[in-house]
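2024-03-11 09:14:02 INFO worker-7 job=invfold-0412 stage=load source=structure_tokens
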């Protein structure tokens, strides 16, 4: 430090320090200037607090109290200035320990390293928040997507659901209906058409032998070539068959058939219509015989 010995204040006052108001230094912040009144950018109190009015470099061997943020240069606080041990390793994060100290820790990355969108899906990613969404028309092989609804074009195996499922028109085949499970209540009134009736109600057949199978036709035709005795098979109560028979030979019906007394008897010289109704299965039938005029 230069000595003031032999120097006059009037010649050296610009090199001196003084407070701006030329009063005594007290506990209030006093602006420092040189002897000519030029501001130095510092304030001073009699308790030793020096404050810089602008950001800069503060040098010293020791200090106490607080340093305001205006005194700290941007990007100047490094790990050394924090209460943290070491510099950590690449990829680690500085985590608060909750007690005023910090430590370097490696955050768990989890098992998922990336999300890749498949067929019919857009989006994906390997970092940050990942969003995937269905494409507007294709949701994968056999699937289509529109207005929030996924349609299954084809599949194998059974389809199950916790709520009601919609089945496409004409998609339920016979194999999917359990035998003997279409009950009367499932059939609308007047909806069994002639085409849906069995052969025993719609078919006419030529009788080649002597056995009349009631389950195969409703009308049988035969021209006798010899005396003939007929037999019946598969007769159910309420069924009716018609026999159209000609041939001038003796015709004998089964013993279960009762011929009505007001009807004609068989006349082999022409065609005869024999109508037979079962009143008790194979056990009892009633017959009327009418000869073509």
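2024-03-11 09:14:09 INFO worker-7 stage=emit residues=293
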């Amino acid at each position: 430090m230069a000595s003031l010995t032999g120097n006059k204040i009037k010649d050296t006052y610009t090199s001196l320090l003084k407070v701006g108001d030329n009063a005594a230094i007290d506990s209030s912040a006093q602006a420092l200037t040189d002897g000519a009144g030029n501001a130095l950018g510092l304030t001073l109190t009699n308790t030793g607090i020096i404050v810089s009015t602008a950001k800069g470099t503060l040098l010293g061997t020791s200090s106490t109290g607080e340093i305001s943020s205006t005194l700290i240069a941007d990007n100047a606080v490094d790990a050394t200035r924090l209460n943290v041990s070491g510099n950590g390793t690449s990829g680690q994060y500085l985590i608060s320990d909750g007690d005023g100290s910090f430590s370097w820790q490696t955050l768990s990355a989890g098992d998922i390293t990336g999300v890749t969108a498949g067929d019919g899906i857009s989006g994906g990613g390997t970092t940050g928040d990942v969003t995937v969404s269905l494409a507007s028309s294709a949701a994968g092989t056999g699937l289509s997507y529109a207005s929030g609804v996924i349609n299954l074009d084809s599949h194998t195996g059974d389809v199950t659901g916790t709520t009601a499922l919609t089945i496409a028109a004409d998609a339920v085949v016979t194999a999917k209906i359990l035998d003997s499970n279409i009950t009367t209540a499932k059939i609308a009134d007047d909806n069994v058409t002639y085409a849906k009736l069995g052969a025993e109600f719609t078919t006419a057949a030529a009788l080649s032998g002597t056995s009349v199978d009631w389950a195969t036709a409703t009308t049988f035709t035969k021209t006798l070539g010899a005396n003939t005795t007929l037999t019946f098979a598969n007769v159910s109560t309420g069924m009716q068959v018609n026999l159209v028979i000609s041939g001038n030979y003796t015709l004998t019906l089964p013993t279960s058939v009762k011929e009505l007394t007001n009807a004609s008897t068989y006349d082999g010289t022409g065609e005869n219509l024999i109508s037979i109704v079962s009143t008790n299965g194979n056990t009892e039938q009633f017959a009327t015989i009418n000869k073509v005029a």
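2024-03-11 09:14:09 INFO worker-7 stage=report msg="The chain is about 5% helix and 30% strand."
2024-03-11 09:14:10 INFO worker-7 job finished
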